[in-house]
Amino acid sequence: MTTKSSSLNKVFADLPVTIFEAMSQAARDNNAINLGQGFPDDPGPEDIRRAAADASLNGYNQYPSMMGLPELRQAIATHYGHWHGLKLDPMSEVMVTSGGTEALTSAILAVVQPGDEVVCFQPVYDSYLPIIRQAGGIPRLVRLEPPHWRLNEDMLKSVFNSKTKAVLFNNPLNPSAVVYPREDLELLARYCQEFDVIAICDEVWEHVTFDEHKHVPLITIPGMRDRTIKVGSAGKIFSLTGWKIGFVCAAPPLLRVAAKVHQFLTFTTAPNLQAAVAYGLGKSDDYFLSMRKDLTRSRDRLTRGLESLGFPVLKSQGTYFLTVDLSPLGLNESDTEFCWRIVKDYKVAAIPVSAFYEQDAVTSVVRFCFAKKDETLDTALERLSDAVRGRKR
């Protein structure tokens, strides 16, 4: 039987293959080093992996609580209380999901109804817009620009109105690697309160910050405690991206509806991984500070190497990524053309930041992942040694 394309859900049927999958496939096809997709090339903390193995062999392997193991929900609440001074009731304000993307989906579907407007900041993570549209919502896009990618009064004034139901805010911001200062958060909070808007905060990179930049959750800004849904990810905190353990934290009226959505998406999440994450969240501060120190060293290694080759690097404040702005180089190609060229000719995969825009894209910025071993970064730099000189006008 041939299915008519017109009978399929056009929100999803018309979506192209994501740039992450396209570039990762190109990396495989060209035997290239993949500095595009955001995953480390080490296996993750051994003690946490052993905790998961022990829980699988000796623990409970049937359906866990839909809301998450009680010990993990308590660990999440304790962890955020310690790091951010955020007091959460683990039983009524914390939920565990199968990854951050599911957490975001549960939050969006819980809040957005047909006709609601949702403010999103470009560059925007690729799952946001399809889920908003599936809920019947209308994305209102704000264009952020290099080199600082900051919020300002004019951009918020242009999109917030009486129809605005929610805002999706990613901090630290992937792909531009910005950790937003408190003044930007207070500006956004003021607009959320003035227009009675719910903030859905994608904060999966909250522990991956560098130098003196400190992540401040929007939910901790005065006036935002009862109108914010905070999303976190154990995969990003522990460099175990395949585990797909997400966190949703919100006031009870918001969390109750998000939980009803979660019930019909994945319902629950592997209990052995939940047990291991609960163990991990209880690790001493030294673990988290050491993780940041190691990633800072990798960031600096790739930054120095790219700059020595003539690439204008924008300083990364957080996440696994740094970005390069090609515009000063006078290359006769866009960021997308540059990425296809280097994966084919130089055997290194990167991601064009224009892929994170739906309209009025910034077309000169490329994202590289530095969460790799030294030898991986050094080999990539060797391969890219002529990538700038070989394309100048």
TrEMBL record:
Q: Which cofactor does it need?
A: pyridoxal 5'-phosphate
- On whether rRNA-binding is a keyword of this UniProt record, the answer is no
For this protein, what is any one GO molecular function term?
transaminase activity
Q: Is Transferase a UniProt keyword of this protein?
A: yes
* Top-level taxon of the source organism: Bacteria
Which Pfam family is an annotated match for this chain, by its short name? Aminotran_1_2
Q: What is this protein called?
A: Aminotransferase
